[in-house]
Amino acid sequence: MLPIVHHPDYDAASVGDDHRFPMRKYSLVAEILRDRGYDLEAPIHASQAALERAHDPSYVHGVLTSALDRKTARRVGFEMTPAIAARTRASVGGTELAARRALEAGAAVNLAGGSHHADDQGGAGFCVFNDVAVAALSLLDEARVQRIAVIDLDVHHGDGTALIFANDPRVFTASLHCEENWPRTKPPSDLDVGLPRETEDDAYLAAAQKLVRETLAAARPDLVFYNAGVDPHIDDRLGLLSLSDHGLKARDRLVANACAASGVPVVGVLGGGYSKDARAVALRHTYLVDALQEIV
Ligand SMILES: [Zn+2]
Question: What's the CA-to-centroid distance between 143 and ligand 1, angstroms?
Fold first, then answer.
């Protein structure tokens, strides 16, 4: 079975069902997968030392002690509480654990993460800490891997990840996103492809195929982090693209199969997904699990 990581803290911070951040999808996707017979493994919270690999120590301290200044907290989009700090530490620990499991099994999934707008100086857009950056730097520091690729197919540009690794030749960052979407300023990844509004399945999948192929060829990675945000879906409230469910399934299979064909382990993280119907979003996130299950 595909190793799958989940922590009850993922949705322990109540932000209210009317908040744009869909906290409920995390427990829903876990419930769907338990019903399908998966055993979910719980991570430990990320350590302060691990968080400081990717983030300024004073920002980390501010989050962990609920003492962020108001301006920094407003940029993140959450009121900074102990529950939010616990949630984000669990989420980062989950991506660290899933990355280790992927190295053992060939693939693994964290049922959270993909907080790609957080950079070294602070968070933004519901992203407190950049789980993928922390996990990548932990594995590099431990010499578990030498080279990493981040394939970010969330509909929003992976600006935080791009900034954190701008001068780190060990990590190749690639982002496929809607060019007109937030964030307006898109600091360069190693490979960026911005799609026009309302791009549909065929054009999207052709662009994804090309981006994945070029990334694997240029990076020659020992491990891929795949941000499988489902916000390119046509029903997404924040997405601006027009993918169908079929298109999202094909996209996740494309990434899984390309990594398997190159013999590169892959760790999937959920990323964004903001439809009104939380259960529909949770179901879309299971396409990632289905795709990676096929390659382990
Ligand atoms: Zn997104």
Answer: 30
Provide the H-helix boundaries in 68-200.
Answer: 70-76, 82-105, 131-141, 159-164
Which residues, 6 or more positions from 162, have their beta carbon under 8 angstroms from its beta carbon? 173, 175, 186, 187, 188, 189, 192
What CA–CA distance (Å, rounded) separates 211 from 209? 6
pLDDT in tens, 165-177: 999 999 999 999 9
C-alpha 231 – ligand 1 centre gap (Å): 6
Confidence of residue 253 (pLDDT cuts 50, 70, 90): very high
Hey, is 182 helix, strand or coil?
A: coil
Let me know if 67 is exposed, middle or buried by CB neighbors in 10 A (0-12, 13-18, 19+).
Answer: exposed
Distance 273 CA to ligand 1 centre (A): 7
Q: Ligand 1 centroid vs 158 CA: distance in angstroms?
A: 9
H/E run at residue 178: strand 171-178
In tens, the pLDDT along 256-265 reads 999 999 999 9
Report CA(129)–ligand 1 centroid distance (Å).
Answer: 15
**Residue 3 in tokens:** 């190793």
Phi then psi for 244, rounded to 5 degrees?
A: -90, 175
- Which listed residue (116, 117, 177, 233) is catalytic? 117
Domains parsed from the chain with CATH numbers: 4-12+21-293 (3.40.800.20)
- Rounded CA-CA distance 192/190 in Å is 7
Cα separation, 61 vs 67, in Å, equals 8
Residue 156 annotated to the active site: no
